[in-house]
Amino acid sequence: MGWLFSEEAAVFTAADGDVAPVEYAVAIDRYLETLRLSPASRRVYRIALATWAWPLVGRTPPGGRERRGAPPPIVPLALLDTPAARDRLREALAERAAAVDARTLGRELSILRGAVGWWRNRGWISGDPVGPLRSPALPATSGEILSGEQVAEIFRLPAGLREQTFWRLLYETAAPVERLLALNVDDLDLPRRRLRRAPAIRWRAGAARLLPLLLLGRGTGPVLLTERRAARATPPGDRDPVTGRGRLSYRRAAELFTGATRPLDPAGHGWTLRHLRAAGQAHRPSSQAHRRSAQASPA
User: Fold this and answer.
1) Which of 8, 124, 195, 265 is most buried, judged by most C-beta within 10 A?
2) 206-235: per-residue pLDDT in tens?
3) What are the tens digits of pLDDT across the range 1-18?
4) Cβ contacts of residue 41 below 8 Å, gap of 6+?
């Protein structure tokens, strides 16, 4: 099946008056423009969304490294509103599950779900072909919750200030990793230990002690920075205006955490950032105690 559309193809006007692109690839670009992502994370999102384009037109995506650079097929965005889209995506999910680990598949499905939700909110599509899809459950070992002592061991590791701050922030807020990596300095209300914008994220004493040290002398730019200067093509919003360093990527943050925790993991593999977030969710203080802590913080 061939679709004779191009990036210069006609557009149609959505129900809310927004001009929607005809082509799936252009819709991807429009969606990614709204996200504050590091260049590395943006690449991951683009590859994941492009991968789902192939089954929508009944084709198999390239495997291995070829998948990263392969131009996706031309797909009309309206195809997502057809009855065939849900069935094709369901089949693709099963095939992808046989090729990658459950964690990778879950991330790719989550990325597609976020994009489809945004397109629906814009009125560009009306259906939800991703709604009933569920990624396979993670292996049992991945569902184990770190104990309080294991978390304490993590915070005793001889890691740098950036890592210790990020790990504390992740554990104390139990917020999505991607959202914490996307934070900018001016998003933070340090005295009240919370974000300035909704939805609210609050942290506790550990992160409150480390954040001012990490941000010393900085009033703008990403909270979590790379060690080196960002590439020239990095968007201004993803670099520190003073040092030129870029926003820390998910991949690098995950590598550092797993590598640092390998000696602590009885299995010797090292834990993931999602392990730490799950521990934060499990060990979170009651809402009443949390409110008392917030009220006791300096105004």
Assistant:
1) 124
2) 999 999 999 999 999 999 999 999 888 888
3) 333 333 233 333 344 446
4) 178, 181, 249, 250, 251
DSSP bridge partners of 63: none
Report which of 12, 24, 171 is spatially closest to residue 88, judged by C-alpha positions: 24
User: pLDDT > 90: what percent of the chain?
Assistant: 40
**Which CATH number does 142-296 carry?**
1.10.443
DSSP bridge partners of 264: none
Asked if residues 121 and 16 have their Cβ atoms less than 8 Å apart, the reply is: no
Helix (H) or strand (E) holding 289: helix 287-296
pTM recorded for the entire structure: 0.55
In degrees rounded to 5, what are phi and psi of residue 192? -95, 0
Query: What are the C-alpha distances in Å from 65 to residues 47, 62, 69, 101, 249?
Result: 11, 8, 7, 16, 20
Amino acid found at 229: R
Can you tell me whether residue 95 is helix, strand or coil?
Answer: helix
| Cα–Cα distance list, 98 to 51, 92, 166, 171 (Å) | 15, 10, 33, 32
Q: Identify the bridge partners of residue 245 per DSSP, sorted by sequence position.
A: 229
When pLDDT is averaged across residues 24-45 and rounded to a whole number, the result is 88
> Looking up tokens 């692109």, which residue turns up?
21
Q: Half-sphere exposure (CA, 13 Å, Cβ side) for 286?
A: 3
Inter-residue contact 239 to 136 (CB < 8 Å)? no
- Radius of gyration of the chain from its Cα atoms, rounded to whole angstroms: 21
Rounded to whole angstroms, the maximal C-alpha distance in the chain is: 64
- Amino acid sitting at position 255: E
Map out the domains of the chain as residue ranges: 12-122, 142-296
Token pair listed for 215? 């941000």
The answer to whether the Cα torsion of 225, 245, 48, 114 is positive or negative is positive
Listed in sequence order, the residues at least 6 apart from 199 whose beta carbon sits closer than 8 Å to its beta carbon are none
Dihedral of alpha carbons 57, 27, 251, 70, sign: positive
